[in-house]
Design a protein that fits this description.
The chain has 399 residues and is α/β, with parallel strands linked by helices. It folds into two domains: 166 residues, no CATH class; 221 residues, no CATH class. It has twelve helices and ten strands. The strands form two sheets. Strands 1, 2, 3, 5, 7, 8, 9 and 10 form an eight-stranded mixed sheet that branches. A two-stranded antiparallel sheet has the order 4-6. The longest helix is centred in the middle third of the chain and has 35 residues. The C terminus is likely disordered.
């Protein structure tokens, strides 16, 4: 038994180091030369390292034979690293590649430190973990009980609270307050902007999936004399190989899709979005892959395509330009061109679009006048099935 366990730990340590070195080389090449040669190998090693980490972590709870001072830091490295970088990525999205490089460097350092301790130096020999380190010990109920208690009452609650806090910060930051995570559910803040000439623009943050009452309440709030500038990317040339659908997500959450339920009938409906042909080839390829993940059953072929997908540095900026910035500009231009046609305008667009749209319409002389809060999705449903909830008024009007 000690010999088999030492062999398993040696394989894990070797895999951890191999993944660390490949990741460091890959991130260094991307940072210096803006190229990536190793995404598939890195992805396969990553999957293997994660699976082995789960196995070793479980064995740490089952047997006291594994030296925790050496292998507990290894199995906890990736979860802790990912948790630590979340706040940085919320407020500094441009740090993604430097942070990835720093994590890879720390992983190499961690692996080499454990190897040094396991070998008593850098005279590397196989097995990497000797049988002397895996001392024969009997099964211990105290070890297992302590392991379970620490996970159930310390690690799990702390992780949930931490991730919940990060989610609240991220939603508030990226939506500029248009979306909020609350204990009872997800809410959005509709804002009304007015101009000195009496014209108004209402911004309604939308969600691809939500409760049916949200879409109905929103549509019923539109006035017949308003121009409704609708969102919705067209695909006249058939460039998307997979239809954009959120059916699976809606079904799993017990809600409905915006496309099927949000059908406003009041006001003049105007399409104010772009066509897929205006996106770059990289964005179209990414959308096709993303929609496959949404609509197809997960299989080996799809996994390999995901692992092989290696966007060039700067792709994130290109994606944001296509999916947000350029579409927002198109909408604002549509609004500008129709200002003389009506006094009321309604913009029911995705919540991610709202911060920039709000800034752009304020440049046209509009100022925030009123806010209203709508519930998108309740975590704990208290309303009767089929009941349409009224929106809650917010803190009041802003002058």
């Amino acid at each position: 038994m000690p010999g088999l366990l030492a062999l398993l730990l040696s394989l894990y340590l070797g895999l951890f180091l191999a993944h660390a070195l490949v990741s460091l080389v890959d991130d260094s090449l991307a940072a210096i030369f803006h190229i990536r040669f190793l995404p598939v190998l890195r992805g396969l090693l990553s999957v293997g390292a994660i699976l082995m980490s789960v196995l070793i972590y479980g064995l740490i709870g089952l047997t006291p034979m594994i030296p925790k001072r050496l292998f507990l830091p290894l199995v906890m490295f990736h979860p802790l690293a990912h948790l630590v970088v979340i706040p940085f990525l919320i407020y500094h999205q441009g740090w993604l590649h430097p942070l990835a490089w720093a994590v890879s460097l720390c992983q190499v350092g961690m692996g080499l430190a454990v190897l040094y301790c396991a070998q008593g130096g850098f005279n590397v020999r196989w097995p990497l973990v000797s049988e002397e380190l895996v001392k024969p010990r009997r099964f211990s109920w105290a070890n297992l009980l302590g392991f379970l208690l620490v996970n159930a009452f310390v690690l799990f609650p702390v992780t949930v609270v931490y991730l919940g806090s990060c989610a609240v910060l991220a939603v508030d930051h990226f939506s500029d307050g248009f979306v909020a995570l609350r204990p009872g559910g997800i809410t959005v803040q509709a804002r009304t902007y007015v101009r000195d000439d009496g014209k108004t623009v209402q911004l309604f943050p939308m969600a691809h999936v939500a409760e049916r009452s949200f879409y109905r309440t929103l549509a019923d709030s539109f006035t017949p004399d308003a121009i409704v500038l609708m969102e919705g990317v067209t695909d006249q040339e058939g460039l998307l190989t997979n239809r954009i659908s959120y059916r699976r997500m809606a079904k799993s959450l017990g809600v409905v899709e915006q496309e099927k339920e949000f059908t406003p009938t009041r006001g003049e409906i105007v399409h104010a979005d772009v066509d897929v042909a205006e996106f770059t080839a990289n964005t179209i390829g990414f959308l096709n892959l993303a929609m496959r993940l949404h609509t197809e059953d997960f299989n080996v072929e799809l996994l390999l395509q995901v692992l092989q997908h290696s966007p060039a540095p700067g792709f994130e900026r290109e994606l944001i330009e296509d999916l947000l910035t350029n579409r927002n500009r198109h909408l604002v231009e549509a609004l500008r061109s129709r200002l003389a046609q009506a006094d009321k305008f309604v913009v029911p667009w995705g919540a991610a679009h709202m911060p920039e749209i709000a800034r752009e319409i304020q440049k046209l002389g509009f100022r925030l006048n009123e806010t209203r809060e709508f519930t998108v999705m309740r975590f704990r449903r208290t309303a009767k099935r089929g009941e349409v909830g009224d929106p809650k008024e917010s803190l009041g009007a802003y002058e």
